[in-house]
Design a protein that fits this description.
CATH topology of the largest domain: Aspartate Aminotransferase, domain 2
Bound molecules: 4'-deoxy-4'-aminopyridoxal-5'-phosphate
Radius of gyration: 21 Å
Number of domains: 2
Strand content: 5-15%
Number of helices: 12
Distance between the termini: 38 Å
Strand order of the largest sheet: 4-10-9-8-7-5-6
CATH class of the largest domain: Alpha Beta
CATH architecture of the largest domain: 3-Layer(aba) Sandwich
Order of helices and strands: HEEEHHEHEEHEHEEEHHHEEHEHH
Largest sheet: 7 strands, mixed
Amino acid sequence: MDHTQDRALRHRAARVLPQGVYGHQSTALLPETYPQFFTRGEGAHIWDTDGHAYLDLMCAYGPNLLGYGDPRVNNAAIAQLQKGDTLTGPTPLMVELAELMVSMISHADWAIFCKNGTDATTMAKTVARAKTGRRIILVARGAYHGAAPWCTPAPAGILAEDRAHIHYYDYNDAESLSAAVAGAGDDLAGIFATPHKHDAFTDQALPDPDYARRARALCDQTGALLIVDDVRAGFRLTRDCSWELLGVRPDLSTWGKSFANGHPISALLGSETARDAAGSIYVTGSFWFSAMPMAAAIATLEILRDSSYLEQTIALGHRLREGLSKAAHAAGIGFRQTGPVQMPLFLFDDDPDFRRGFAWASDMLEQGIYIHPWHNMFLCAAMTDRDIDQVIEAAQTSFQAVSKRLDKIVPHPALSTLLAARSA
Ligand code: PMP
């Protein structure tokens, strides 16, 4: 596979961007052959700068829910862009969008819109402290809530003081949560939980209802706020806050990624109990009132509310899980698929440094399938049965290739460094 253009861009990027690219797309964290740059996306596919098309199971790490460039969403966005986007104040769309979200998300009575998931999670932390006048925030060990100093996974440049009042518990472990709450004494402001355990590098786990109910009960007892971080899983599991599936209502929920189908907007939603606290903090941003992403969000949410996108992605997910499971079995390979079927994570047995995962992913890429060796993936509503069958067919040959490639593909040491930092 020719990567000439991508290599040339990487070379230029290395001069003008730290490490050539930052964050989750750092090339050190993905197989060597993975393209870093893409020129376009349409439906379920992305194209790299060398003209290769890939069926994209990463879906932009979540934002692509209906399909890249969905015309229903983009036409609404473009129409608004032509009228006005970033103005001195918000357009009426902000009210319309807040009304729509509040009508769809059972626990929510108000919304604040922002740009990235990290804006929303950081604001949730501030609201919880403003509401309670207390300091301690509980976070599940290993959970990702963004890249701000209080929650970023890598330690460089971060002070212990940045996390002085962030305490940790084990996800799905009600006893560990209770112990962390007891440890916080009378200083507990809030408890963060992701909808399910979707940490990178490790098998996903569905939420234990006892743990979720305990989180609610502990917040009720202490007056702390329960925060469900739906940035990644929002609208992928249900058309409401994800913990509605368990009958557990948070006080705050954080949203991002998918609800404008890739347009840049995120949100903090809250219940009546947190309204005054949310109104008391100072939060804003130059682009937080931009109208184009709000138009895109309204169009997306109407489609989510009125279409069968969810049932479609779940059906595709089952087809994929069954097909891959059969293919792995036939190849005699220990292959684990975890998490909800529409947000799958794939890991290999006996693969501490992800070598098998990297080998498999590299071979899948050559066959035109973009998967991730250690992060959960996403299915989108633009995928078809045929696309899923293509993944399964590619996997049948790629599973055979894993053992042959093991010596050739060695994950970059940066991956081990990141892993070590996480387990420290
Ligand atoms: N919370 C969760 C659960 C996430 O998955 C992410 C992003 N992967 C964030 C927060 C942060 O979102 P963003 O990258 O948009 O700041």
